[in-house]
Design brief:
The protein is an all-alpha fold. The chain contains 13 helices and no strands. It binds zinc ion. Belongs to the PGAP3 family.
């Protein structure tokens, strides 16, 4: 008997600038929402095909999801967990625990490692780091408003950089909280838009395309970037959803941006001999090293910390550094992240198996 007694379940009865910012985020969300609705489901993994996993899911659904449904706690229902998805999660944990216990490898399920969720959040570390990344852009936007005069020609471009950053990390947070086809597509589209905006911005700053004499070139450059993004979306949604292509496109665009900033840093450092001139180059070097974490694909340490979440962790400090470069991100914000990490390391881990509602922990 592997179903938990029914008594273990809870009862089923149980400002103007910020306005414009919201409008921009809402428009971006709406546009990507519309295209993400065209998405198709993700591919299966080896774990999904394991007989013990299939048997577990079938037995769990028959025992909990048919005529007399076992109620889920409110916080899980709020995060859109339902009986079949709860069975799927519980069986992933159960099968993984028994495989680890018998010295077998940990397998992926539905294209992802079997993470231990926290309060219904599927990938707690990726969510935490996404929120911190988003906060860096939010704090950065505030520092831009405080430090830069509105007449500064790059101000609107930097401001939009912050908005794209917040938009990107908002959807990263949503996706890592609950992985649906829709949230995955939104995460990918928002990340793609963010990376492409980085490429759009680099020559504007480096070659001073914001000057009135370059107005025509700037318009053409803007149209090229918008067209590239439209083609990117069309390919992913209209031709083929291809993870490798998506990753390659982002890496290529990001690499061109990195080369531009490295060129800028070398040129300015050689001329000025001032350390700050090397900052953009050092920031992109950090990002390149952090990106290599994405190439590592190991099972999550303690069921929670994987290479992808470490990649998200690794982008927090370069983000703060960037805003310190273009404006002055105040130090207390930096210190608050150190405190976050210190707290995280002393927090007790959840009790073994207490995250599982339908299947007894092994
Ligand atoms: Zn992510």
């Amino acid at each position: 008997m592997w179903l938990l007694p029914r008594t273990h379940f809870p009862s089923s009865s149980s400002s103007s600038s910020s306005g414009s910012l919201c409008r921009v985020l809402a428009i971006l969300s709406f546009l990507l929402f519309a295209v993400a609705l065209l998405a198709t489901p993700a591919a299966a993994s080896r774990g999904d095909r394991l007989p013990e996993f299939k048997d577990c899911v079938q037995g769990c659904k028959e025992g909990n999801c048919l005529s007399e449904k076992t109620p889920l706690p409110l916080h899980l229902r709020l995060l859109l967990w339902n009986c079949p998805s709860e069975c799927d999660y519980a069986c992933q944990r159960s099968v993984t625990a028994s495989r680890v216990g018998s010295g077998q490898s940990i397998e992926q399920f539905h294209g992802k490692w079997p993470f231990k969720r926290l309060w219904g959040v599927q990938e707690p570390f990726s969510v935490l780091f996404s929120i911190l990344n988003g906060h860096v852009h939010y704090a950065g936007l505030k520092s831009l408003k405080r430090e830069l005069p509105r007449s500064y020609p790059l101000y609107p471009y930097y401001r939009l950089f912050s908005i794209f950053g917040m938009f990107c990390w908002l959807w990263s947070t949503v996706f890592h909280t609950r992985d649906f086809v829709f949230t995955e597509r939104m995460d990918y589209f928002a990340a793609g838009a963010n990376v492409l905006y980085g490429l759009y911005l680099a020559p504007i700053r480096i070659f001073r395309l914001y000057r009135p004499t370059y107005a025509r070139i700037l318009r053409i450059w803007g149209m090229v970037c918008i067209a590239a993004y439209a083609v990117h979306l069309f390919f992913l949604l209209g031709v083929r959803w291809d993870y490798t292509y998506n990753m390659t496109a982002n890496v290529v665009v990001g690499s061109i941006t990195n080369i531009l900033w490295t060129y800028w840093s070398i040129r300015h450092y050689t001329r000025l001999k001032s350390f700050w001139a090397a900052w953009p180059g050092l920031i992109v070097m950090w990002l390149i090293m952090a990106m290599s974490l994405e190439l590592l694909d190991f099972p999550p340490v303690a069921g929670a910390l994987d290479a992808h979440s470490l990649w998200h962790a690794a982008t927090i400090l370069p983000g703060m550094w960037w805003y310190r470069y273009v404006a002055t991100l105040p130090l207390p914000t930096a210190l608050s992240y150190v405190l976050h990490f210190a707290l995280l390391s002393i927090l007790p881990s959840p009790c073994p198996g207490c995250h599982v509602h339908y299947v007894r922990p092994c």
